[in-house]
Amino acid sequence: MNDLLLHYPDNPALIPDQIEAMLDGQPLTVRKYSRFDEPLYVVQAETDPGTEHEVHLVFKRKYRSLSLHPKRLGLSLDPQKKGASIRFSGAPYLVVECDALGYLVLLFEPPGDIPEGDGVVMATDRGIASDFHTVQTEAIQNALNEISASEDLHTLRLPAGTYRCGDLHFPSNVRLHLDAGALLKASDHAKDIGNPAMKGADWNRASFLNADGAENVSITGQGIVDGNRTVLDMERYFKGLLLFRNCRNVTFDSVTFADSCGWGVTPRHCTGVTAHRVKILNNRPRFGCINTDGLNPDSCENVLIDHCFFHTGDDAVAVKTTNYRCEPGSVRNVKVRDLLAINNSATAKIGTETLGEVMEDIHFERVDAVRTCRLCVVDAYDVAAIRNCSFRECHVHELDGNWEDEGVIDIRMPREGMGFRPLKGEAVIENLLLESIHAEDPEAPSSVLIRMDGDKPALRNLTVRNFTCGGIPSELKEERI
Amino acid sequence: MMNPEGTQTIEVQVDDQRTQSITPGNGNLMIEPPEAVGDLWFNLLNNLWNTNFRLWNEGPMGYRFRMDFRSQTP
User: Which residue range forms the structural domain that includes residue A56?
Assistant: First the structure.
């Protein structure tokens, strides 16, 4: 067992004030994101995938109910004095919901690879030192540039420690590896944010991590990239946490992206994007919506989002084709599988921006929402032809429509005047499959809501199989607007 | 690469060893740089940056290799 949250000495939020966790008899660090509108508790540890493990939880407040997610894994909470224990094997991502405290996220990870060898540059060898206060943008950027220009180097490795910087811009052929305990955190000060031309106008602001036209770029390891939204509010500085544009062959593996000012991870006009075991922990209010989406592939081809956990104030995954600082492009071959989410708007979504020519072969599979507003969503607001897409084995525990209409399956093709922004053309949806879609709550909206202009045959070949709410088969219903 | 009699060297041309999935010599490109001697290895695991998109996907894969062999008589 390896406690992956043990090495963040600069963060006072590590004090376990309300929950204790033990894995196989060893204490685990419980990290509390108290800066979020609704606190989030996180445990992260390496486990041996071939062994059965037991995690024991003690809650220091009186509670009435505990529940464990995702249900599909078939695991159970064994009640204990002041808590519960869970037996599991492998390295799952789990959420325990406690009515008195909120959500505790249990992130169990397989042992990760640590890059070593001649091609690996240790940050300390380039004068980059762990320091919670010193901003080291130039040193980190120089190291990335040096690796890119080198024939022999390929990886910049940040050991456990805290590293502060302004916006970084990734060149080609670079892997940034954050060891467990490494925290790469945006500076507290606006003066550290480079490229003033990017400030100001809404969609022209920089993100914390950027790339444009690069290839073979990866961010790996069990460390944390922190957008520092709490200090750098979203209206003035960064637009989002990561924006990679026009890139080829991009991988995010094992890393945690936390506290984005806006959208979390956005690949735009990229091809060959892999997100594996990525955690996005963004601010999420109890009520309403804040625009901290998780991972939004925008005008991308060949995208795999695999075994991830997203906690967001808006959508978890929204596949889009926008015109933000670019011409809208088509979307092809996007696969999202084994996604666990807590979010305030849509969990698995195509849209809302659908401005490109085609969005095809977009598939969501094994999606579990602990709490969301809408589970499976197609918001076809613009001109794109959306075809050959599917949602399979999707499950929602709690639907909460506190700020917009809730829905388990929600297909919207609004006409002008019905959306939240001016629409650009008329969409077509064809060959859409929804299979094995389940809501636990028998009071959840049990119809497939299709909201479209009644005069246009814009939805062709929709198949819905095995859709239940509270175990009761549901129905197909069209709502003409 | 030596033939069984050890009398002939065959040079295998690989365009860019950093970006190809093929490396002569040592099979673990992620840990050690390739050695241009010995057996010929096909490294289908990944590349130096972990960015080989196809290899993150499940299911059957097909690869096509083009190798140019040039004989060198000692």
Answer: 2-109
A157-192 pLDDT tens trace: 999 999 999 989 999 999 999 999 999 999 888 777
> CATH number of the domain that A98 lies in?
2.60.350.10
Confidence check on the interface: ipTM exceeds 0.85, yes or no: no
Q: Could you tell me which residue, A313 or A427, shows the higher pLDDT?
A: A313
CATH at A457: 2.160.20.10
Total domains in the fold of chain A: 2
Residue A114 domain-assigned (yes or no): no
CA angle A234, A334, A180 (to 5 degrees): 55
Contacts of A280 (CB under 8 A, 6+ apart): A256, A257, A258, A260, A264, A265, A294, A295, A308, A309, A310, A311, A312
- Judge: A304–B19 Cβ closer than 8 Å, yes or no: no
- Supply the pLDDT for residue A302: 95
Asked if A33 and A42 touch (Cβ cutoff 8 Å), the reply is yes
Q: What CA–CA distance (Å, rounded) separates A208 from A365? A: 30
Contact yes or no for B51 and A217 at CB 8 A:
yes
The residue among B60 and B16 whose pLDDT is bigger is B60
pLDDT (mean) for A437-450:
82
Give B44→chain A minimum CA distance, Å: 16
Backbone angles phi, psi at B54, to 5 degrees: -60, -35
- Out of A116, A251, A302, name the one closest to residue B50 (CB): A251
Give the minimum alpha-carbon distance from B11 to chain A in angstroms, rounded to a whole number: 22
How much is the pTM? 0.89
pLDDT of B23 = 46
Q: How far apart are CA B52 and CA A376, in angstroms?
A: 29
Give a yes or no: residue A165 inside a domain. yes
